[in-house]
């Protein structure tokens, strides 16, 4: 009985001690080895074999510290990643390129400057045995037979409109609201009307598709908007209603559909009728006065003029890949675009990724055995394409469809920006679905640094205050003062940049530390993967070299050579104007990369 009572008393004392161990300001700290062991970031071989889908590589532990020194951080499962990386801080070297080589299932890249295509596509195609595609609305310039040609795999947004009458209008409207977005401003009336013109012209193309006179693509929409006979668009629309919407033609088609299948051969009427939606929208536009029609077409052309560009017209003429297959087979798509073209093609970029998501959140893998692969979307400069409404709407359930996001931004402010980002509510929705956030420290303290310091948390900093009195009854008094102290002050976070990668014994401008914040353990400091480090990362170095030596072939666009020369000149002028408009960077943003990086590799 006595031993039992002693044990009971000790248990109660320990319980009380635990309960009474309270803090004033918090008990935050960085993760220790025990925390990291339970985090899931360092699976053993058995756990790796049991993974259903490949992990993302999100960093590496320092080589001289702790139980997990020099181990890669593996982020398994279906949850999403948010990376905050300032300009030229190593996001390409540390996250994008390593995963482009490591990740063995499907990937889609927003590839600004086409660096990821050049560094990983050859490896993904020839070693990982994937289907690899590059869509570049401006065309990717290559030298063939002494001539510069523009090449790209083609993407036709209108290809994905289901022809079934039940879905047709809804699919088309999803495209239209992206190309003609409402802003809540005074011009929304014209935007709505120009959107309806777009819908009506695409409906006409769909109605008459089997006649074979026009392909259903964006360039055909532009051609229809300017009638070949020189008449007004309204007049052309009314003529089409008269010729394709009359009772005689309707009756002819009714008689045709009433025939038995075996008797229909060779009796299909040569002229196809217009749908009710087409007629309604044609009449709606034609009923407006000429001045209103002119204003509507001005807004229409502001959006659609990019498809009149010969390169974009050729690049969107047809489809060389099917984005609905990214979960059916291992494939990689690079959306390649130059920084200066981001604004010009923002809506096309938005449309591409919106369609990619819409087309892949219709069927769950458990309802279709062919959907057996995961697809990771690597979205560099995520907010550059404008607000992806489908992301906000579907993010909470997208993971269940085996779509995984890696969002890359310069800072949190970009995400929460009301005009160019997702606003406070939308930004929080996205962050709630990112189980891991990685922060590359910037050069200076800003709001993002303060947010990270706040997120890591505070602890009770205890200092002793000593008071002495002199005289006959002198005494010394010691008081413990509890103060609030951040685990990492903002300045301490930016100071992490002083830890640089060394190449040939010299410090480079490439800073190593990154802060990892996750649902799985307390925050901790890891290192970026230095995928150009021949000594410690030869796997990545060799894969990158292989890709550069084995750049995949991309189809040549059917464009006259004089037009190619003209387009290349316009592209160069645009890029120079973009560079001139950029703010000045600190000196180490323009260090000579050859001094630090093998074979001229850059830090980002």
From TrEMBL:
Listed A to Z, the keywords are: Cell membrane, Membrane, Transmembrane, Transmembrane helix
**Chief location of this protein within or outside the cell:** membrane
Q: How does it sit in the membrane?
A: Multi-pass membrane protein
Keyword hit for Iron-sulfur: no
Q: Which domain of life is it from?
A: Bacteria
Q: Where in the cell is it found?
A: Cell membrane
Query: Which cellular components does GO assign to this protein?
Result: plasma membrane
Q: Which residues form a coiled coil?
A: none
A Pfam family the protein falls into:
T4SS-DNA_transf
Q: Which family does it belong to?
A: Belongs to the VirD4/TraG family.
* Annotated protein name in UniProt: Conjugal transfer protein TraK
Question: Which gene name belongs to this protein?
Answer: traG
